[in-house]
Design goal:
about 30% strand, about 30% helix, 7-stranded mixed β-sheet, Aminopeptidase
Length: about 230
């Protein structure tokens, strides 16, 4: 990772509020676990955020819950009882027909499919930042161990950390380029495999190697205090 990417994506604080990392909790929850204290709030954030996006792009007034419930896990950052970001996490084994024929890959060009190979993949998708917290930066308080980090970068980095500690051989995702998610993935070492239309904009098909970790103190701090997996 170059210093300029790290500064511009992870740490630069031109505007927006600060949140201390010790005021946050990171949860890895099962989307169908209705007993989890954050499950309903995580789904509400996901549903309302994506419904607003789809309404803006193509006028949709309904959204189906199975895109949320089909995930293996949901990564959720919370400030108190409030969910401030969510990410879908799923494992697909392309060594098996069940994985190779997953609908997630139906719009991928053949050269991108060839690049990911037939192996166990971690898929990061449906990342959403609460509208009230967009532009927020996370800090370790008085520590000078690292600069404040954008909430969006932290959300993606924690999902990547989950896959780094799993059997997944590669991590893939489709970025929303209008929200600079492609730049966040690139800052984590992601490589662009291609590009497709996505929610009214362009989306980059990104491939990441989970053995190449970017793990500053804020990520370490929240990961060691996580709830779940």
């Amino acid at each position: 990772m170059t210093a300029s990417i790290q500064t511009n994506i992870a740490g630069a604080r031109d505007s927006g509020p600060l949140l201390r990392a010790d005021a946050l909790e990171y949860h890895l929850l099962k989307p169908r676990d209705s007993a989890h204290p954050r499950a309903a709030a995580a789904y509400e954030l996901w549903r309302n955020g994506w419904l607003a996006t789809f309404r803006e792009v193509n006028g949709f007034t309904r959204i189906h819950s199975d895109e949320f419930s089909r995930q293996d896990e949901i990564g959720v950052l919370c400030s108190g009882a409030r969910c401030i970001s969510v990410t879908g996490l799923r494992f697909v084994d392309r060594a098996q027909p069940l994985g190779r024929e997953d609908s997630y890959f139906k719009v991928w060009p053949s050269e991108a499919i060839e690049a990911i190979g037939d192996q166990l993949l971690g898929i990061s998708s449906n990342t959403l930042i609460h509208p009230d917290f967009r532009g927020t930066h996370i800090t370790l308080g008085d520590s000078e161990a690292c600069e404040p980090m954008t909430l969006s970068f932290l959300t993606i980095a924690l999902a990547f950390q989950r896959f780094a500690e799993s059997p997944a051989k590669k991590v893939i995702g489709i970025s929303r380029n209008d929200r600079s998610m492609n730049r966040l993935a690139a800052a984590l070492g992601g490589r662009k495999l291609g590009q497709i239309p996505l929610h009214g904009t362009e989306g980059d098909l990104m491939l990441l190697d989970p053995t190449m970790r970017y793990q500053p103190p804020i990520i370490d701090f929240l990961w060691t205090r996580r709830n779940g997996s």
